[in-house]
Amino acid sequence: HYGIFNGNKWRTSIAPVVEDWIATHNR
Fold this sequence. Notes:
elongated; single chain; about 0% strand; mainly alpha
């Protein structure tokens, strides 16, 4: 399952969502 956190899927799909969530909750 470690492959989920490596590669393009994380960089292009999950990372932006996480960053947006963090930005939303750090106002």
